[in-house]
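Justification of computing resources. Each target in the renewal requires a structure prediction run like the one illustrated here; the chain below, 474 residues long, is used simply to show the kind of job we budget for.
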Amino acid sequence: MHRTHRRPRRLTLVGTALTVGALLITTPADADTTRPDATTHPLVVVIDTPWEKLVPLDETVHSNGIWVSNVGRTDLTDVTVTVDASALKAVSDDVEVPCDPDGDLVGVCHGIGPVRRGVPVRVGAVRVGLPKASAVGLSREVRFTASAGDGSHGMQRYTALVPETGQEFDRAANARERLALDGTLPLPGGFTNFTRTALPAVEILLTLSPGLSLTERFRNCVRVRGEDLLTTVSCKVRGPFAPMASYDLDLGAVRAHADALLENIEYEVRPWSSDKYRSLPHQGDKHEGDGPGELTAVPRPSVATHLRTDAKAYGLLSTAVDVASTADFTVTGATLRGRPGDVVRAEFTVRNLGPGSRGSTQKERQNDYGSLWLSVPPGVTVVHAPRDCYGHKADRPTKGYTSGEPGLGHPKGRGYSCGGTSGQYLAAGKELRYAFEFRLDASGDLRPGFVTTMYQEADSRPKNNTARVEVEKR
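Resulting C-alpha coordinates:
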Protein backbone atom coordinates (compact mmCIF):
# COMPACT_ATOMS: atom_id res chain seq x y z
CA MET A 1 0.00 0.00 0.00
CA HIS A 2 1.37 3.36 -0.93
CA ARG A 3 0.24 5.92 1.55
CA THR A 4 1.89 8.56 3.67
CA HIS A 5 0.92 8.39 7.35
CA ARG A 6 1.88 10.32 10.37
CA ARG A 7 4.90 8.89 12.01
CA PRO A 8 3.59 7.01 15.10
CA ARG A 9 4.82 8.36 18.40
CA ARG A 10 6.37 5.83 20.74
CA LEU A 11 7.63 5.73 24.33
CA THR A 12 11.08 7.28 24.33
CA LEU A 13 13.66 7.36 27.09
CA VAL A 14 15.75 10.48 26.59
CA GLY A 15 18.99 11.18 28.46
CA THR A 16 20.59 14.61 28.08
CA ALA A 17 24.27 14.94 28.77
CA LEU A 18 26.22 18.18 29.15
CA THR A 19 29.23 18.77 26.97
CA VAL A 20 32.63 18.76 28.60
CA GLY A 21 32.84 22.54 28.58
CA ALA A 22 29.62 22.82 30.62
CA LEU A 23 30.29 20.03 33.13
CA LEU A 24 29.68 20.69 36.78
CA ILE A 25 33.11 20.33 38.45
CA THR A 26 33.81 20.59 42.16
CA THR A 27 37.12 20.47 43.99
CA PRO A 28 38.17 20.70 47.63
CA ALA A 29 38.50 24.45 47.20
CA ASP A 30 35.82 26.89 46.08
CA ALA A 31 34.69 25.74 42.59
CA ASP A 32 34.12 29.36 41.49
CA THR A 33 37.70 30.46 42.18
CA THR A 34 39.86 27.34 41.80
CA ARG A 35 41.46 26.70 38.39
CA PRO A 36 42.88 23.34 37.24
CA ASP A 37 46.55 23.11 38.32
CA ALA A 38 49.07 20.60 39.59
CA THR A 39 47.54 20.74 43.09
CA THR A 40 43.80 20.19 42.56
CA HIS A 41 43.83 17.56 39.75
CA PRO A 42 40.11 18.08 38.96
CA LEU A 43 38.22 15.16 37.46
CA VAL A 44 35.54 15.30 34.79
CA VAL A 45 32.87 12.65 34.18
CA VAL A 46 31.84 12.42 30.52
CA ILE A 47 28.70 10.71 29.18
CA ASP A 48 29.34 9.74 25.57
CA THR A 49 25.73 9.54 24.28
CA PRO A 50 23.78 12.79 24.70
CA TRP A 51 20.48 11.33 23.44
CA GLU A 52 19.06 7.90 24.17
CA LYS A 53 15.85 6.46 22.70
CA LEU A 54 13.99 3.39 23.84
CA VAL A 55 10.92 2.14 22.00
CA PRO A 56 8.38 -0.38 23.32
CA LEU A 57 8.03 -3.54 21.25
CA ASP A 58 11.58 -2.98 19.96
CA GLU A 59 14.19 -5.29 21.47
CA THR A 60 17.07 -2.90 20.91
CA VAL A 61 19.15 -2.26 24.04
CA HIS A 62 20.67 1.19 24.57
CA SER A 63 23.51 2.38 26.75
CA ASN A 64 25.28 5.54 27.84
CA GLY A 65 29.03 5.12 28.04
CA ILE A 66 30.82 6.57 31.10
CA TRP A 67 34.31 8.08 30.92
CA VAL A 68 36.49 9.81 33.48
CA SER A 69 38.94 12.49 32.40
CA ASN A 70 41.76 14.27 34.21
CA VAL A 71 42.19 17.95 33.36
CA GLY A 72 44.91 18.48 35.91
CA ARG A 73 48.69 18.33 35.39
CA THR A 74 49.54 15.14 37.28
CA ASP A 75 48.44 11.56 36.57
CA LEU A 76 45.96 10.02 39.03
CA THR A 77 46.30 6.30 39.86
CA ASP A 78 43.44 5.53 42.26
CA VAL A 79 40.15 7.00 41.05
CA THR A 80 36.69 5.92 42.22
CA VAL A 81 33.59 6.49 40.08
CA THR A 82 30.13 6.06 41.62
CA VAL A 83 27.09 5.61 39.37
CA ASP A 84 23.70 6.13 41.00
CA ALA A 85 20.96 5.02 38.60
CA SER A 86 18.59 3.77 41.32
CA ALA A 87 15.93 6.25 40.21
CA LEU A 88 15.60 4.36 36.91
CA LYS A 89 13.78 1.54 38.74
CA ALA A 90 10.65 3.57 38.16
CA VAL A 91 11.39 3.80 34.42
CA SER A 92 12.45 0.29 33.37
CA ASP A 93 12.77 -3.23 34.74
CA ASP A 94 15.84 -3.80 32.56
CA VAL A 95 18.65 -1.52 33.85
CA GLU A 96 22.30 -2.34 34.48
CA VAL A 97 25.17 -0.23 35.83
CA PRO A 98 28.86 -1.12 36.16
CA CYS A 99 30.38 -2.35 39.47
CA ASP A 100 26.98 -3.24 40.91
CA PRO A 101 27.13 -6.81 42.30
CA ASP A 102 23.98 -6.50 44.45
CA GLY A 103 21.80 -5.11 41.63
CA ASP A 104 20.59 -2.01 43.47
CA LEU A 105 21.60 0.17 40.48
CA VAL A 106 24.26 1.95 42.51
CA GLY A 107 27.71 0.98 41.25
CA VAL A 108 31.02 1.91 42.87
CA CYS A 109 34.08 1.37 40.65
CA HIS A 110 37.36 1.49 42.60
CA GLY A 111 40.97 1.55 41.50
CA ILE A 112 40.58 3.25 38.14
CA GLY A 113 43.83 4.48 36.72
CA PRO A 114 46.18 5.71 35.76
CA VAL A 115 44.08 8.61 34.51
CA ARG A 116 46.46 10.78 32.53
CA ARG A 117 45.88 14.36 31.52
CA GLY A 118 43.82 14.54 28.34
CA VAL A 119 43.35 10.73 28.02
CA PRO A 120 39.81 9.73 29.13
CA VAL A 121 39.41 6.27 30.67
CA ARG A 122 36.24 4.29 30.03
CA VAL A 123 34.54 3.12 33.21
CA GLY A 124 31.56 1.23 31.74
CA ALA A 125 28.03 2.05 30.71
CA VAL A 126 24.50 2.49 32.01
CA ARG A 127 22.44 -0.03 30.04
CA VAL A 128 18.66 0.46 29.79
CA GLY A 129 16.11 -1.83 28.12
CA LEU A 130 12.43 -1.26 27.42
CA PRO A 131 10.72 1.40 29.53
CA LYS A 132 7.67 0.43 31.54
CA ALA A 133 4.39 1.27 29.88
CA SER A 134 3.33 2.88 33.14
CA ALA A 135 6.36 5.21 33.09
CA VAL A 136 5.09 7.68 30.49
CA GLY A 137 5.30 11.22 31.77
CA LEU A 138 7.98 10.35 34.34
CA SER A 139 11.50 11.81 34.55
CA ARG A 140 14.33 10.53 36.76
CA GLU A 141 17.88 11.72 37.38
CA VAL A 142 21.04 9.62 36.99
CA ARG A 143 24.12 10.87 38.91
CA PHE A 144 27.83 10.20 38.43
CA THR A 145 30.65 11.22 40.79
CA ALA A 146 34.40 10.72 40.57
CA SER A 147 36.97 11.16 43.33
CA ALA A 148 40.68 10.57 43.91
CA GLY A 149 42.78 10.11 47.05
CA ASP A 150 44.15 13.65 46.85
CA GLY A 151 40.65 15.14 47.19
CA SER A 152 39.96 15.78 43.50
CA HIS A 153 36.28 15.50 42.74
CA GLY A 154 33.98 15.69 39.70
CA MET A 155 30.27 15.21 39.09
CA GLN A 156 27.88 14.74 36.16
CA ARG A 157 24.17 14.01 35.85
CA TYR A 158 21.44 13.64 33.28
CA THR A 159 17.67 13.36 33.39
CA ALA A 160 15.87 10.38 31.88
CA LEU A 161 12.43 11.24 30.52
CA VAL A 162 9.67 8.96 29.21
CA PRO A 163 7.34 11.38 27.41
CA GLU A 164 3.64 10.82 26.88
CA THR A 165 3.16 9.25 23.46
CA GLY A 166 -0.56 9.50 22.92
CA GLN A 167 -2.72 6.57 21.89
CA GLU A 168 -1.33 3.37 20.35
CA PHE A 169 -3.24 0.65 18.54
CA ASP A 170 -1.85 -2.54 20.10
CA ARG A 171 -4.36 -5.32 19.45
CA ALA A 172 -5.28 -6.61 15.99
CA ALA A 173 -5.34 -9.69 13.78
CA ASN A 174 -2.02 -11.49 13.39
CA ALA A 175 0.76 -9.83 11.39
CA ARG A 176 0.08 -12.24 8.48
CA GLU A 177 -3.15 -14.11 7.79
CA ARG A 178 -4.35 -16.44 5.04
CA LEU A 179 -7.86 -16.12 3.67
CA ALA A 180 -9.97 -17.99 1.09
CA LEU A 181 -11.66 -16.14 -1.77
CA ASP A 182 -14.93 -14.62 -0.55
CA GLY A 183 -13.85 -15.62 2.98
CA THR A 184 -13.99 -13.42 6.06
CA LEU A 185 -11.36 -12.63 8.67
CA PRO A 186 -12.49 -11.59 12.18
CA LEU A 187 -10.87 -8.34 13.33
CA PRO A 188 -10.18 -7.96 17.04
CA GLY A 189 -8.85 -4.53 17.94
CA GLY A 190 -7.66 -2.46 20.85
CA PHE A 191 -5.57 0.46 22.01
CA THR A 192 -3.89 2.00 25.05
CA ASN A 193 -4.05 5.64 26.12
CA PHE A 194 -0.38 6.31 26.91
CA THR A 195 -1.04 9.73 28.45
CA ARG A 196 -1.89 11.15 31.87
CA THR A 197 -5.06 12.76 30.46
CA ALA A 198 -8.55 11.30 30.03
CA LEU A 199 -10.06 11.47 26.53
CA PRO A 200 -13.79 12.00 25.84
CA ALA A 201 -13.59 10.24 22.45
CA VAL A 202 -11.12 8.77 19.96
CA GLU A 203 -11.01 8.26 16.20
CA ILE A 204 -10.45 4.66 15.06
CA LEU A 205 -9.00 4.44 11.54
CA LEU A 206 -8.80 1.38 9.31
CA THR A 207 -7.18 1.44 5.87
CA LEU A 208 -8.05 -1.52 3.61
CA SER A 209 -6.31 -2.42 0.35
CA PRO A 210 -8.54 -2.68 -2.78
CA GLY A 211 -9.41 -6.38 -2.42
CA LEU A 212 -10.93 -6.08 1.07
CA SER A 213 -14.08 -4.57 2.58
CA LEU A 214 -15.41 -4.29 6.13
CA THR A 215 -18.48 -6.46 6.75
CA GLU A 216 -19.91 -4.19 9.47
CA ARG A 217 -21.27 -0.73 8.63
CA PHE A 218 -21.26 0.83 12.09
CA ARG A 219 -23.52 3.87 12.52
CA ASN A 220 -20.67 5.93 13.97
CA CYS A 221 -18.30 5.24 11.04
CA VAL A 222 -17.71 6.83 7.63
CA ARG A 223 -15.94 5.00 4.81
CA VAL A 224 -14.34 6.42 1.67
CA ARG A 225 -12.95 4.54 -1.31
CA GLY A 226 -10.32 6.91 -2.62
CA GLU A 227 -8.90 7.43 -6.08
CA ASP A 228 -6.04 5.13 -5.09
CA LEU A 229 -8.69 2.39 -4.53
CA LEU A 230 -7.85 2.19 -0.82
CA THR A 231 -10.82 2.20 1.56
CA THR A 232 -10.47 4.38 4.67
CA VAL A 233 -12.89 3.80 7.55
CA SER A 234 -13.13 6.50 10.25
CA CYS A 235 -15.14 5.87 13.42
CA LYS A 236 -15.89 8.16 16.35
CA VAL A 237 -15.81 6.02 19.49
CA ARG A 238 -17.02 7.69 22.67
CA GLY A 239 -15.28 7.30 26.04
CA PRO A 240 -14.24 8.50 28.44
CA PHE A 241 -10.88 6.76 28.12
CA ALA A 242 -8.85 6.90 31.30
CA PRO A 243 -5.12 7.72 31.49
CA MET A 244 -2.81 4.71 31.06
CA ALA A 245 -5.79 2.41 30.42
CA SER A 246 -6.34 -0.12 27.63
CA TYR A 247 -9.54 -0.78 25.69
CA ASP A 248 -10.72 -3.45 23.24
CA LEU A 249 -12.86 -3.20 20.11
CA ASP A 250 -14.86 -5.68 18.02
CA LEU A 251 -14.28 -4.44 14.49
CA GLY A 252 -16.36 -7.19 12.89
CA ALA A 253 -14.56 -8.79 9.95
CA VAL A 254 -13.13 -8.10 6.49
CA ARG A 255 -14.22 -9.96 3.37
CA ALA A 256 -11.99 -10.87 0.42
CA HIS A 257 -13.35 -9.81 -2.98
CA ALA A 258 -13.32 -12.10 -6.02
CA ASP A 259 -10.11 -10.48 -7.33
CA ALA A 260 -8.33 -10.20 -3.96
CA LEU A 261 -4.74 -11.45 -3.80
CA LEU A 262 -2.01 -9.85 -1.65
CA GLU A 263 -3.90 -7.49 0.65
CA ASN A 264 -3.22 -5.36 3.71
CA ILE A 265 -5.02 -3.75 6.67
CA GLU A 266 -3.62 -0.83 8.69
CA TYR A 267 -4.89 0.30 12.10
CA GLU A 268 -4.61 3.64 13.88
CA VAL A 269 -6.12 5.54 16.80
CA ARG A 270 -5.97 9.26 17.65
CA PRO A 271 -7.90 11.82 19.71
CA TRP A 272 -11.19 12.80 18.11
CA SER A 273 -11.20 16.10 16.27
CA SER A 274 -14.18 18.39 15.69
CA ASP A 275 -13.39 18.02 11.97
CA LYS A 276 -14.95 14.59 11.55
CA TYR A 277 -13.59 14.10 8.03
CA ARG A 278 -10.00 15.25 8.64
CA SER A 279 -8.56 11.72 8.25
CA LEU A 280 -10.54 10.77 5.13
CA PRO A 281 -9.37 11.19 1.52
CA HIS A 282 -10.54 14.42 -0.08
CA GLN A 283 -11.54 12.62 -3.28
CA GLY A 284 -13.55 9.41 -3.47
CA ASP A 285 -16.91 7.81 -2.76
CA LYS A 286 -18.01 8.69 0.79
CA HIS A 287 -20.61 6.61 2.66
CA GLU A 288 -22.05 7.02 6.15
CA GLY A 289 -22.50 3.85 8.20
CA ASP A 290 -26.05 2.49 7.86
CA GLY A 291 -25.80 -0.66 9.98
CA PRO A 292 -27.78 -1.42 13.10
CA GLY A 293 -24.81 -1.42 15.47
CA GLU A 294 -22.25 1.07 16.73
CA LEU A 295 -18.53 0.52 17.26
CA THR A 296 -17.78 0.70 20.99
CA ALA A 297 -14.75 0.17 23.21
CA VAL A 298 -14.68 -1.75 26.50
CA PRO A 299 -11.96 -1.80 29.18
CA ARG A 300 -9.43 -4.51 28.45
CA PRO A 301 -9.51 -7.46 30.84
CA SER A 302 -6.36 -8.64 32.59
CA VAL A 303 -5.89 -11.39 29.98
CA ALA A 304 -6.41 -10.23 26.39
CA THR A 305 -6.18 -12.30 23.21
CA HIS A 306 -4.55 -11.19 19.96
CA LEU A 307 -2.37 -8.68 21.79
CA ARG A 308 0.20 -7.73 19.20
CA THR A 309 3.84 -7.74 20.32
CA ASP A 310 5.41 -7.77 16.86
CA ALA A 311 4.80 -4.15 15.83
CA LYS A 312 7.92 -2.45 14.52
CA ALA A 313 9.20 0.84 15.82
CA TYR A 314 8.00 3.86 13.85
CA GLY A 315 5.55 1.76 11.82
CA LEU A 316 1.77 1.47 11.89
CA LEU A 317 0.24 -1.74 13.16
CA SER A 318 -0.80 -3.73 10.09
CA THR A 319 -1.95 -7.16 8.93
CA ALA A 320 -0.90 -8.72 5.61
CA VAL A 321 -3.74 -10.84 4.20
CA ASP A 322 -2.64 -13.48 1.70
CA VAL A 323 -5.72 -14.56 -0.27
CA ALA A 324 -5.74 -18.02 -1.87
CA SER A 325 -5.52 -16.85 -5.48
CA THR A 326 -2.98 -16.01 -8.19
CA ALA A 327 -2.47 -13.54 -11.01
CA ASP A 328 -0.82 -13.87 -14.44
CA PHE A 329 1.27 -10.87 -15.45
CA THR A 330 2.47 -10.94 -19.04
CA VAL A 331 4.55 -8.56 -21.19
CA THR A 332 4.68 -8.02 -24.96
CA GLY A 333 7.91 -7.53 -26.85
CA ALA A 334 8.41 -6.19 -30.36
CA THR A 335 10.44 -6.55 -33.58
CA LEU A 336 12.18 -3.38 -34.85
CA ARG A 337 12.38 -3.52 -38.68
CA GLY A 338 13.93 -0.99 -41.07
CA ARG A 339 17.02 0.40 -42.72
CA PRO A 340 19.92 2.01 -40.87
CA GLY A 341 18.85 5.57 -39.95
CA ASP A 342 15.12 4.74 -39.87
CA VAL A 343 13.09 5.71 -36.78
CA VAL A 344 10.82 2.89 -35.67
CA ARG A 345 7.99 3.07 -33.14
CA ALA A 346 7.28 0.18 -30.75
CA GLU A 347 4.84 -0.20 -27.86
CA PHE A 348 5.42 -2.49 -24.90
CA THR A 349 2.70 -3.59 -22.51
CA VAL A 350 2.31 -5.17 -19.08
CA ARG A 351 -1.05 -6.92 -18.71
CA ASN A 352 -2.66 -8.70 -15.77
CA LEU A 353 -4.62 -11.71 -17.04
CA GLY A 354 -6.02 -12.32 -13.54
CA PRO A 355 -7.89 -13.60 -11.73
CA GLY A 356 -6.21 -11.66 -8.89
CA SER A 357 -5.59 -7.91 -8.83
CA ARG A 358 -2.80 -6.23 -6.91
CA GLY A 359 -0.13 -3.57 -6.64
CA SER A 360 3.57 -4.16 -6.13
CA THR A 361 4.86 -5.89 -3.02
CA GLN A 362 7.63 -4.62 -0.75
CA LYS A 363 10.06 -7.16 -2.20
CA GLU A 364 9.25 -6.06 -5.75
CA ARG A 365 9.62 -2.39 -4.86
CA GLN A 366 13.21 -3.03 -3.78
CA ASN A 367 14.07 -3.63 -7.44
CA ASP A 368 14.98 -0.67 -9.63
CA TYR A 369 13.01 -1.57 -12.75
CA GLY A 370 9.48 -0.44 -11.98
CA SER A 371 6.38 -1.91 -13.63
CA LEU A 372 8.37 -2.65 -16.79
CA TRP A 373 12.07 -2.73 -17.58
CA LEU A 374 13.32 -2.31 -21.15
CA SER A 375 16.81 -3.46 -22.07
CA VAL A 376 17.54 -1.62 -25.33
CA PRO A 377 19.10 -3.78 -28.10
CA PRO A 378 22.72 -2.72 -28.77
CA GLY A 379 22.08 -1.94 -32.46
CA VAL A 380 19.50 0.82 -31.87
CA THR A 381 19.25 4.18 -30.04
CA VAL A 382 16.19 5.53 -28.21
CA VAL A 383 15.17 8.90 -29.65
CA HIS A 384 11.90 9.26 -27.71
CA ALA A 385 10.93 7.75 -24.35
CA PRO A 386 7.63 7.99 -22.41
CA ARG A 387 7.43 10.61 -19.66
CA ASP A 388 7.18 7.99 -16.90
CA CYS A 389 10.18 5.93 -18.06
CA TYR A 390 13.56 6.67 -16.51
CA GLY A 391 16.63 6.29 -18.71
CA HIS A 392 19.71 4.44 -17.41
CA LYS A 393 23.23 4.07 -18.80
CA ALA A 394 23.24 0.33 -18.07
CA ASP A 395 21.11 -2.18 -19.98
CA ARG A 396 20.45 -4.19 -16.81
CA PRO A 397 18.90 -3.05 -13.52
CA THR A 398 21.53 -1.84 -11.07
CA LYS A 399 21.35 -1.24 -7.33
CA GLY A 400 21.70 2.26 -5.96
CA TYR A 401 22.05 5.66 -7.59
CA THR A 402 24.31 6.20 -10.60
CA SER A 403 25.33 9.72 -11.60
CA GLY A 404 24.97 10.98 -15.15
CA GLU A 405 21.88 8.96 -16.05
CA PRO A 406 19.76 10.21 -19.01
CA GLY A 407 16.86 10.62 -16.58
CA LEU A 408 13.07 10.70 -16.71
CA GLY A 409 11.67 10.70 -20.25
CA HIS A 410 15.06 11.35 -21.84
CA PRO A 411 16.47 9.60 -24.94
CA LYS A 412 19.72 7.62 -25.44
CA GLY A 413 19.34 5.33 -22.44
CA ARG A 414 20.49 1.71 -22.67
CA GLY A 415 17.87 0.63 -20.12
CA TYR A 416 14.53 2.13 -19.01
CA SER A 417 12.50 1.60 -15.83
CA CYS A 418 8.87 2.49 -16.47
CA GLY A 419 6.16 3.16 -13.92
CA GLY A 420 8.45 4.07 -11.04
CA THR A 421 10.07 1.87 -8.43
CA SER A 422 6.80 1.70 -6.47
CA GLY A 423 4.87 0.22 -9.38
CA GLN A 424 1.12 0.62 -9.90
CA TYR A 425 -2.04 -1.20 -8.90
CA LEU A 426 -2.88 -3.45 -11.82
CA ALA A 427 -6.40 -4.89 -11.80
CA ALA A 428 -7.27 -8.13 -13.57
CA GLY A 429 -7.81 -7.45 -17.28
CA LYS A 430 -5.98 -4.10 -17.21
CA GLU A 431 -2.68 -3.21 -18.86
CA LEU A 432 0.03 -0.56 -18.87
CA ARG A 433 1.39 0.75 -22.20
CA TYR A 434 4.76 2.37 -22.95
CA ALA A 435 5.52 3.66 -26.48
CA PHE A 436 9.14 4.25 -27.58
CA GLU A 437 10.80 5.45 -30.78
CA PHE A 438 14.11 3.91 -31.86
CA ARG A 439 16.67 4.87 -34.52
CA LEU A 440 18.28 1.89 -36.22
CA ASP A 441 22.04 2.40 -36.15
CA ALA A 442 24.49 1.52 -38.93
CA SER A 443 26.06 -1.09 -36.67
CA GLY A 444 25.61 -4.68 -37.75
CA ASP A 445 24.94 -5.77 -34.17
CA LEU A 446 21.56 -7.58 -34.23
CA ARG A 447 21.56 -8.95 -30.70
CA PRO A 448 18.08 -8.64 -29.11
CA GLY A 449 17.04 -6.73 -26.04
CA PHE A 450 14.18 -7.63 -23.75
CA VAL A 451 11.32 -6.31 -21.61
CA THR A 452 10.36 -7.69 -18.21
CA THR A 453 8.00 -6.78 -15.37
CA MET A 454 8.44 -6.37 -11.65
CA TYR A 455 5.15 -8.19 -10.94
CA GLN A 456 6.39 -11.70 -10.25
CA GLU A 457 5.14 -12.80 -6.81
CA ALA A 458 2.07 -15.08 -6.76
CA ASP A 459 2.29 -15.30 -10.57
CA SER A 460 0.82 -18.51 -12.01
CA ARG A 461 2.91 -18.35 -15.24
CA PRO A 462 6.27 -16.66 -14.57
CA LYS A 463 7.66 -17.60 -18.01
CA ASN A 464 5.62 -14.86 -19.73
CA ASN A 465 7.03 -12.15 -17.46
CA THR A 466 9.77 -11.50 -20.04
CA ALA A 467 9.72 -11.01 -23.83
CA ARG A 468 12.39 -10.33 -26.49
CA VAL A 469 12.93 -7.10 -28.45
CA GLU A 470 14.25 -8.23 -31.83
CA VAL A 471 16.06 -6.14 -34.49
CA GLU A 472 15.74 -6.80 -38.25
CA LYS A 473 17.69 -4.51 -40.59
CA ARG A 474 17.09 -4.50 -44.32
